[in-house]
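Data deposition worksheet. Section B asks for the primary sequence of the deposited chain exactly as it was used as input, without tags or linkers unless they were present during the calculation. Section C holds the resulting structure in token form. Section D is free text for depositor observations; keep each observation to a single sentence. Incomplete worksheets are returned to the depositor.
Section A, Depositor: J.P.
Section B:
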Amino acid sequence: MKVEFDEVGGQRIATFGTGPRKIIAVHGITASLMAWGAVGRRLPDGWSLVAMDLRGRGHSAGLPGPYGLPRHAEDVLRVAGHVGADGEAVLTGHSMGAYVAVLAAARRDFARVVLVDGGLPLAPIPEGADPDAALEALLGPALARLRQTYPSAEAYVDFFKAHPAFAGRWNADVEAYVRYDLTGPEGALRSRAMGAAVLEDGRWLHLEHEPLTRALTAITAPLRLLRAPRGLLDQETGLLPDELTRPWKERLPGLRDEVVPDCNHYTILFDERCVATVVDRLTSPD
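Section C:
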């Protein structure tokens, strides 16, 4: 599968494939555009996928703040316009990227919107609780790695191999995703993701439920949710359990909800069987 890199206003984008039918894809809170590599490489003929490094991540880490999900939605719409994504394009996002996709889809038409293990407002944190502490509890090792340096690329790979979500589930797509994230000199390598961006976005995600609610109800495109049954640390409860999802299925009768079996929050985009389901739902008409 052909992959081409480009920049839009200093923002790194990658296009997987050469087909005229386009998918615009948005990654998660500490991730990069390579989170979509496995999906992009498995697209059927006639399709291409455009993924971007969000502001403060990957090769877009140098773009200035402010951050926050509305700012990312503006960037997504700018990229979509740059690549000529018309009303026949599909919009998708994973994890935090699904929430960004919700905000973007409320502002312009897409053929359909596919939310991958994200996009529905999370359970509110207790009144007076620290949103940064809530984010720390949610992300665990994903946030801890941003504070560390690593003596070599292999040490960074080993850190990810020990992550509960990837233990026993390692493959070439995960390794490409991990190695893309590294920057800095040998002996003091670190993640490209900027801690300030992650914290600002995490606060927005935990505190700004009303804008998400308004955006979800404003989307006119067919809306599909793909959920992982297991969580960020491969725990038995996923990010969007049934009790959180059920009220939204009642509120949005057009929402098509599907649990993708035997995957967790991360492997839904990396495990070959899970990826096959994601690709099918992105490219097959509802």
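Section D:
The mean pLDDT is 94.
The domain at 3-123+194-283 is CATH 3.40.50.1820 (Rossmann fold).
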